[in-house]
From TrEMBL:
Coiled-coil features, chain-numbered ranges: none
SMART domains xref list: SET (SM00317)
Protein source organism: Athelia psychrophila
Pfam families per UniProt: SET
SUPFAM superfamilies, per the entry: SET domain
PROSITE patterns for this protein: SET
Protein name per UniProt: SET domain-containing protein
Record-linked InterPro entries: SET_dom, SET_dom_sf, SET_domain_protein, TPR-like_helical_dom_sf
Annotated SET domain residues: 36-199
Amino acid sequence: MVYHKINFSDFTGIVLAGRDITEIIPCCQKTLATALGNAYIISPAAGKGSGMFTSRDIPAAGVILVENPVIVCPAISSNGTQESFGLLFDGLHPDVRAKALSLHNSDPLRPYAEGIVRTNAFGLPLESLDSAGPTDGMTHRGIFLDLSRCNHRHERTSLILQNTCAPNCTHLWDQSTCSGSLIANRPLGKGEEITIDYINITDSRDIRRANLRDMYHFDCECSHCDLPNAVAIAESDAARATISQFGKSGGLPLPGTWAMDLSLPDGHLVDAYKMCILLHEQEHIIDAKYLERLEHLAICYAMLGEEDSFQTWANRVLQVMDIRSSENKAMWKRWVVDPKVNCELWNWRKLHGRFPK
């Protein structure tokens, strides 16, 4: 492992990685995406060090922040000590180093620099030739001066309660500019704490709480964890389990398979996708799977040739694509303009569907 400097427009960062990783991380002179101006402030957050709060109303899909990391290092295993963490911070410019070292350390039993990285680093999917990486594909971790201030937990004693096992923002990584961005999942009012997910939010409530306690040393008190009774907990757990397992059992065909098989009812997929989308919205989980299921539902209506329903769901797809980047956005925009002409799948089930022999 070797250290490398990375030069950004307003500071110099540091990378601890295999030699070939410098070919993946650019010396970022590219222009970053544009964020809303004066969108947030960093303020104390009870029990969590500092947090990020909106300083104005933010529309859904609003870009709150775009930022380069100051430190990039290999993904950290749950065990073992990385003695080189302190050297990572020592390599930063003094002003940047002071701000990075002011990040919250949720595990004071660890060396301070290591605790800061473990508490605040974001997963980065940088594939290195000499690093297989963890199973989630996040081979490296990045520390950001402001983005790393986003919290998961929110206190019930605070003015506004955040659903942080259903975060109000999404963080995205752009490899081309070596930058992270923060996108609003829904409209945010001035003064709301900006929250993201730290863990797999489709796990059960007890597993989520246990993981947060083990990794970050706090008990989540968001409205999806601090539920009123055992019945509410069981209902939420069941909804999240359905979201997680939807389509994995093999009993639900893909839209193309369903469209060709007229022995399956027209509503076979439509009803299933609507049910799962409703659960996503009930649990406030606006993730990549939510977008995928919206796309599949709209495609089902295209294959049925039902224009009004297609337009309704296709426009929902485009709204979510404003939050979660997608290479398919231009295609969906073209389909919405004139689906009968531009959508190659239009009326496919009625034109090509067959009963199995």
